[in-house]
Design brief:
284 residues, alpha/beta, Rossmann fold, Pantoate--beta-alanine Ligase, Chain: A,domain 2, 2 domains, three-stranded antiparallel beta sheet, 11 helices, globular, binds adenosine monophosphate
Length: 284
């Protein structure tokens, strides 16, 4: 496994691999790798000849300086995970490599970034889309792997790739969960014991909404109510949003007649968690 820190070197290594007819997969991450990341990486290793994992905590996607500074950095552990799973190249650029001077050009996502997290984290998806576009240009991969855990991020990237004709195939990967249903996230470590004990109620709420959809309910207010009923029982959870949105455009719907996602963000103490489930009506 090679660890590369410059754009010029990663570009050259990837071009060489592709000239040899090898298929290259990219897994963009911010490090602090857990079993969720590992699943994305393993999928790329299984499907591609060379897998590039990028490790970069992207300053321009954080709304709060404190959140950026507190983001966990576990370099040795991350390299060990990559090595174990069979990664060929780790791309770990410095801030100076990625942002050598003040940026004058950004990728500004449209309506897809308006609702859900976009409402509460101004500028976040612009930062995400911009850094992912930069990574796609540095690492000219055939495929790039993204988790459904961050469903709006995935939709932002898919629309960017389609709108801007980027030559990379986006591969969505299902959310990886702890045994009690909590979606894996580096933020889970920051939960207190009581908050961690309360956290499964988020997925339980989403499953209640999903069950109502599966039983044929199509009015969103009743679908939301099913989730809210479950989550209201947990005092430690402060819900930021719970929405049912079109699975592609991320626009809220009132009536379900196509693929949707039920998505939420909630605060447990000072930790903000997000989660979602997908639903596709059949034969209607
Ligand atoms: P991050 O390092 O948090 O930016 O995440 C890097 C990638 O891993 C993103 O595509 C995430 O959606 C994905 N990811 C993070 N947590 C999970 C999870 N629990 N299940 C599946 N994918 C995940």
């Amino acid at each position: 496994m090679r660890v590369i820190t410059t754009i010029a070197q990663v570009r050259e290594a990837v071009r060489e691999a592709r000239c040899d007819g090898q298929r290259v997969g990219l897994v963009p991450t911010m490090g602090a790798l857990h079993a969720g990341h590992e699943t994305l990486i393993a999928r790329s290793v299984a499907e591609c000849d060379v897998t590039v994992v990028s490790l970069f905590v992207n300053p321009i996607q954080f709304n709060q300086k404190e959140d950026f500074e507190k983001y966990p950095r576990t370099w040795e552990h991350d390299l060990a995970v990559c090595e174990r799973v069979g990664v060929g190249l780790v791309f770990a650029p410095s801030n100076e490599e990625m942002y050598p001077r003040p940026m004058m050009t950004y990728v500004e996502p449209g309506a897809v970034a308006e609702h859900l997290c976009g409402r509460f984290r101004p500028g976040h998806f612009r930062g995400v889309a911009t850094v992912v576009a930069k990574l796609f240009h540095a690492v000219e991969a055939d495929r790039a792997y993204f988790g459904e855990k961050d469903a709006q991020q995935l939709a932002v990237i898919q629309s960017m790739v389609s709108d801007l004709n980027m030559a990379v195939e986006i591969v969505p990967v299902a959310t990886v969960r702890e045994v009690d249903g909590v979606a894996m996230s580096s933020r889970n470590e920051r939960l207190s014991t009581a908050e961690r004990r309360a956290a499964p109620v988020l997925y339980a709420g989403l499953l209640a909404a999903l069950r109502r959809l599966e039983r044929g309910e199509r009015e969103v207010r009743w679908v939301r109510e099913a989730a809210l009923e479950v989550m209201e029982r947990e005092q430690l959870v402060r819900l930021e949003y719970l929405e049912v949105v079109d699975a592609v455009t991320m626009q809220p719907v009132e009536h379900v007649d196509g693929a949707v996602r039920v998505a939420l963000a909630a605060w447990l103490g000072r930790v903000r968690l997000i989660d979602n489930v997908g639903f596709v009506p059949h034969g209607e």
